[in-house]
């Protein structure tokens, strides 16, 4: 099915699906499940959880596919994490984590509701139109089986759609000439990205790296002295998202306008419920 979508409809839909995947990385259930496998380091757990679909990869592969992580951080944990647990064991633990997390955040009534089943069907239908070429994280996740339970099928589909858009976004970042830290700094400057302390804590960069990237962006006229985006910077970030939209249009065109609107409606309700139950730290997003 193809249709003419409203401007940014696909972006808005993906915007309520993406965080459902991300609940995993802030969940105490991840610490419990991965701790049972023998993991003791938080960074190692989260890197293993996201990269496991790729197999027993090393730091180079993850640096390429994650884009904005410091290779030094990755090399401390990869490929050593696979000595603690195999990718298959990690994938099983990841799915158990998603199950426990969604049940805790959404409640059993929501997990077993007709609306959850409907959302899963719609999200999986959208994912039918995703493509594997030049999209390594999407392609790796697409090779995994679809879980039978609707809430897990929804989480799986949200993961597919997240990584499909994310892989395309990396092409947009490269075309804009933004290196990993510049991409992070300019995103944070929009007010919609992770706060610096969360970026530095999770991506392995130092404050000096952040400040140096900010200086490079100021030299390019993208960032003002006060850390805000300039007009050129605002336009650059808007162009990045527009290009990402074009590269990510197929799933939402396939689903159709009515399906996208309904999936967005259902996804927004689920996200609001999850966020209200404490899925994410209160200070996660922002410039501070």
Provide a concise account of the structure shown.
The chain is mainly α and 288 residues long. The protein has helices at 9-22, 28-37, 42-51, 59-66, 71-77, 81-84, 87-106, 108-111, 114-127, 136-142, 150-176, 180-189, 196-203, 207-219, 231-247, 250-255, 257-276.
Describe the structure.
The protein has helices at residues 9-22, 28-37, 42-51, 59-66, 71-77, 81-84, 87-106, 108-111, 114-127, 136-142, 150-176, 180-189, 196-203, 207-219, 231-247, 250-255, 257-276. With 288 residues, it is mainly α. The protein has one domain (9-276). Helix 12 packs across helix 14 (207-219).
Secondary structure topology:
Elements: H1 9-22, H2 28-37, H3 42-51, H4 59-66, H5 71-77, H6 81-84, H7 87-106, H8 108-111, H9 114-127, H10 136-142, H11 150-176, H12 180-189, H13 196-203, H14 207-219, H15 231-247, H16 250-255, H17 257-276
Helix pairs in contact: 1-11, 1-17, 2-7, 4-5, 9-11, 9-17, 10-11, 11-15, 12-14
SS elements, strand count? 0
**Helix proportion of residues, in percent?**
55-70%
The quaternary structure here is single chain
Order of helices and strands: HHHHHHHHHHHHHHHHH
Gyration radius, rounded: 19 Å
What profile does the largest beta sheet have?
none
Strand content: under 5%
Query: What is the averaged pLDDT score?
Result: 97
Query: How many domains would you count in the coordinates?
Result: 1
Protein name: SalK
Organism: Streptomyces filamentosus (Streptomyces roseosporus)
